[in-house]
Amino acid sequence: TAREVALGNTVAFQALEAGDRIADLLRGRVSVHTALDHYSPPLRDHVSRALGRTRRPTATLQAMKVSTADPAARAAKIPAVLWPEWTARLAPRRLDAEIAGGALSAAIVFAGTRLTHGSAIKLLDPDAQGRQVSHVMRSLGRNAPEADTIGALARLAEFLDENSTPIDYARRRAIDYSEILPCDEWHEVCRTANVLPGGDRRWQLARAHLYALLSGNRLARAPFASVASFPSFVELQQFRAGLPGAVAQALQSSAAEFLSARGIDEPVSWMPELDVAGIHGDVTVQRDREWPPARPARAAVQPSRAVAAYSAGRSVAEIALDHGVARQTVSRVLDDAGVETRRGRRRAVIDADWLRHRYSVELHTIPEIAVEVGVTMTTINRHLEAAGIPRRPRGSASRSTAIRVDPRAGDSALLRRILVGQDATQRAERFLIVAGRDTMTAAAVELGVTLSILANQMKRIGEDAGGPLITRAVRGQPLALTELGVEVQRELTRAFAVSAAADPGRPTEGSQ
Fold first, then answer.
1. What percentage of the chain carries pLDDT values higher than 90?
2. How far apart are CA 103 and CA 137, in angstroms?
3. Among 25, 23, 21, residue whose Cα is nearest residue 52
4. Model's pTM, two decimal places?
5. What is the 3-state secondary structure (H, E, C) of 190-217?
6. Within 13 Å and on the Cβ side, how many CA atoms surround 83?
7. Structure confidence by residue, pLDDT tens digits, 326-362
8. To which H or E segment does residue 470 belong?
9. In the chain, what is the greatest distance between 2 CA atoms, to the nearest angstrom?
10. How far apart (Å, rounded) are the C-alpha atoms in residues 90 and 137?
11. DSSP 265
């Protein structure tokens, strides 16, 4: 009758509360081969003690009392592989962190429920091969480093039941991730962070990082996991440990754009503080490693400093000089930072005919024309090239003193041929000295130069004048001037005398 059933249930509940008595009652009356899966957690505990079995630590999770125990709702609040920071604290010595993370997540799901290990795993990962995960679940909390793991998992499960979370992992697990971080986007990430993108292997590691970060799944569930260069979970951990801060930040932005494009308004990642489970201490992630820079010069420019200096009124050229880089490098840094640079100096307009007359006819030098126009020599060079004006060779032969006729030549056609070119005035002065000596050797001694140098200079001034100027001395006869030499001597003496009278303080050029 109903009265007898009620009385039986009351006696049963009272018996279950007297653990020692029920264990003694069952001892010897229950077969050691009895399956316990269909028993309630309290009765399962009593039967295990009656059979002399050690209670599994995870049985404590199933026996815990919770206000609401909806396994599917709890599964939607956690990743299929528990957050790496939590896994590192709750299962610190597990060889395979990915399997350990999956076991911890499944243990959280079945806390306070009648679920089996396999059922809890399937709520998180329908394709999981549950044997390895289930084995880890059964052994949780049995070694010293995991002494507090079961209690921490129970507190975390209770926290998740009582609080809403910003990420719906059930939805995250259902997203198609086949288009996450295309190769060109990875190269743009590396360009932004100014690092070398590496080969296909590094790109696949970056994709695996974002897939695990967003979905919380095992790496094997990634739609691109079948490619030859796809990494293992251990390789992913090493990649994350060596990830530079700038690259990590750029990947975070890429992940946020991926979610936004699919209409998901959630943070890229989230996890509860370790304190909610009674675990003290923060897990710090160091980002002190660096990858080889793509442009070493650009790595020398700190964007924040460059932007601050430019905003304070400094020019791009000044900032480039401070950092020891080219102006173009600073300009690219400012452009990437979203800074609109100020307009430079107004573009110079130079008439090609005027430039040709000034450079080719009047023989002005490039520095002189640049000063006259108010631009750089590079600008004048560019305009000369654009106008098709042949440029003189570089060096001393192109200096103003070498390409323009000495003004003392006046209108004399002869002197205008002689008093032009490098060291022309020096040659003329030495010719006058040689003309007044009996031998060229005596003139060389007086001037303090070698005979060969002086002879070469006399040969050059003769070529400029149009013929030999000197007949060398022979035995018994002194040095003599040719008719052309006499004319050159007369013209030079007149020109230099007029110049000396007009400007007595004018120094002569380069006499030794």
1. 24
2. 5
3. 23
4. 0.54
5. HHHHCECCCCHHHHHHHHHHHHHHHHCC
6. 16
7. 777 788 788 877 888 776 665 678 888 998 888 887 7
8. strand 470-471
9. 165
10. 12
11. -
